[in-house]
Amino acid sequence: MIGHMLKRDVLRNKTITFTLLTFITLSSLLMASAMSMVVDVWASVDRLFQQAKVPHFVQMHAGSIDQQRLDDFTKKQPLIQAQQTVEMLNIDQTTLFLKNRQQIDHNSVMDVSFVKQNQSFDFLLNLHNEKVEMASGEIGVPLYYMKKYDLHIGDQIWLATDEFEMAFTISTFIRDAQMNPSLVSSKRFVVNDMDWQMIKAHMGQSEYLLEFLLKDTAQLHEFEQMYQSMDLPQQGPTITYTLYKVLNAATEGLIAFVIMLISALLIFIALLCIRFIMMAALEEDAREIAVMKAIGIPRKQIQKLYLTKYIALAFTASTAGYVLALFISPLLTKNIALYMGVGKQSVWHYIIPCAGVFVIALLIIGYCQLILRKYQHISTVEALRTGHLTEKSSSKKGLLLHRSKKVNIHVFLGIKDIWARLNMYSVIGIVYMMCLFMMIVPVNFLYTIQSPSFITYMGAGHSQIRIDLQQTVDIEQRFLHMQETLRTDPDIVKYASFITSGYKVELQDGKYDSIHVETGDFSIFPLSYLKGKAPKQLGDIALSVLKAKELEKDIGDDIVLLINHQKHRLTISGIYQDMTNGGKTAKAYLDVPPTNILWYTVNVDMKQSIILDDKLEAYRDAFYPAKVTDVAHYLAQTFGTTIAQLQLVTKFAIVLALAIASLMTMMFMKMLLAKEATQIAIMRSLGFTVQILRLQYTIRIVCVVLLAIVSGMILAQTIGQVLLRQLGAIMGAPNIALLTHPYMSYLICPLLLLSIVLIAVWLSSKGLKQQKMLMKLGGE
Amino acid sequence: MTTIVSAQHVNKVYKMGETQQHVLKNIELAIKEGEFIAIMGPSGSGKSTLLYAVSGMDQITSGRVLFQDKELTALTEEQLAALRLQTMGFIFQQSHLLKNLTIFDNIILAAYLAKIENRQTVNRRALELMKGMGIEELANHMITQVSGGQLQRAAICRALMNNPRMLFADEPTGALNTNAAIEVMDILADIHQSGTTIMLVTHDIKVAAKTERVLFMVDGQIVAEHTLGTYKKEQLKAREERLVGWLSQLGF
What we know:
Chain A: It is found in: Cell membrane. Chain A is 53% helix and 17% strand.
């Protein structure tokens, strides 16, 4: 009997069943895909890190190296398993020619370095995760360049200066566990040992990676502190195994997060949808339920009849979603597979997505049970007599037609109906609100991350041009020359120079940790501070959020810096957001000249009349080898992959939201028309035309959509901001201000939603013409 | 007297899958302006179908229906709606008032839609009509707060709001108790007295006895007709007896 009822029910409510099935399938599909992405990232990173033997601790160093001292240190330290010193040749990007011999890529923000394959660990791998070996004349190119320039195996690459030229043939692409992510602004090219020596003889500047493998990664932090408290090479940032993992997983993680968010929204909508359908079905079947009760069928048995349908539906749809995800996931994880390789397939690849989907199915069934419980006290007599479960609306008077002197009667009837059945309309209203939220939030996320002011979350004020001068032999001379040029340049509106030095900060237990301290005038390109303000007077220091958290300090607290073996007590004046260098930096106003300089940064704003590209070109020539970047390009390249993926997700979210809105509208209208068939017939008998009735339905839905649009906008501003902050907090910028794309958020998205809903209402109210008046008015 | 409604060779066939149900068979009917006519017959004989066919509420399969010399089958949906709004009134077995509106708002709705008179005049007229039916104190009640008889009187008020030329009533007393049914029929008789044409469908001899002419339908056809003449209260008993006699001859 249950099977028979199920079949009848599905056939009777084809549209509704299909809509529900679609929602549950989609949300299961997204949940399973996102889960599978998480598992994949995890497995792939794990496998890549194992096969590449990623070092646990890396100190970059731009000065000279005393390997003997390092070896002694390694021997004495029980924590170290192995040590390796990697020499990288940093190449000026204007000497690197990709694609063709003439074209120089000036806009790249990446630091290019040439290396040999390593001997004991930190291997550079090919796309099969195998250690690459280069023959003479061959080159292994980082994946980042393959994607950016569409390079192929067999293509030529040139290194050329006025005196020296060398051509290479691409023999493989490189998966570099350390420098894969676009968030890491260095890329390593691999060449044959002999070729490397040849390049070194003619060009490039050496920079060292002092790499350590530890016996136990749990002692990483301890080792890091110990290393930094020793007098060992430290001219450059340090990077740990954990940071490598975070950087590798960040891009894909962000996408998985957004997909899970969409899936959660879909589940919410599916639940609303179910509530809606069940209430309508119970309403429709009130008389039958009453009859069943009257002939003595136990309540539990009746509940089972209804529940079975939803159990069947939930499991069919979630199974379908899971199976679809098996096909769709490879598309979503294509990037992961390319950059990190395919992880070891384990049973978790199937179990975790399956568990996610199972939870969705259980949630749906649980919710159905909850609704049924609410309706278990149906009065048999009442239902038999009236055929209704509830008639809450009929005793509410609300607005009165004869008192509304000038109001159009169609508008009146529309508003009156919404007022009388607020519960029902609020369900569809919430769906529209969610749909708009789903459209606006990704749009604004994208807008925020693409905005030039996003640089302020990277610990720098907003300027047009940024010049980076890294460690070179005569770095100070070059810096002075640069200062001189800028001071006399009439095209400049303002500029500010900053010096970043590597100092040590005293920890609570008396040990020392390294800290990058930037000095300069912070008032020229102001940064908005999360708390407090920029260092203004001697002895002021500002910390990045993550550094302050690590040191457990707040504004007003003192910290002690070790500069030139001298202790300096500084007061924390402010806390700012920074996503660069692992998010752990500081800015200070010091009374000692900077020592142990790591790099220089200069921010420049030009007069409006100046053509920026020309100026960039001129500075590149003048300040070689400093890196001159257009800040807009800088962001686009640093977040390139994330932006591209987010764009895709945004488009998907918009299409999905519109599809949901139209499907839900059609379903809602279908139910409304069925529920109100008698009322419609009465109105038609009074002389209302079908066109006018369609207009009345349109008015009702438009009222609901308009309210939903307003609340959706508010929701996107508030909750959207909270979500973005959660995401930013992980990366070191807990207070990212969500920027609102004015046209998209306030005009295009709401208009799209309104139009699609109007079309859906118009299409589904076509059925009004076919409705037979007589059946509903008691004709034979 | 001129003919207000005429049906010529009207057929109505329902198709249900492969089977066909011929519910109106070659109907010929003419109703004069100001006439009060009742349709009787067993259940399923096609009485309501005929009422809805001649009022343009339902489409016919073949034949012609003329209402005030306009052929209904030739009219568009909009024209039919306008005709219903301005010249017809309907009363159903269930009073069929809109559930979200008060009794008063239900009554004035169609008049507001028609926009023949301004809203103040409409409101005044509605109150007068309600007073006439004895339900003026129910104006601001919701439809769940009043009795079936009161609802039906409100439905009659609604049907009369636009001064229709003709009232169509489908079992208007079918859901009422005896007293309420008598009251409603007396109201309909009064309306007829004032010149409105009425066509009603009923099972009830007491109801039919107050009309001028009774048609008897069996199996989709009008098989007999009985003229009772102008109704006078004191003749009611005699008219009922005449009808009983006539109907028993027909096997009803």
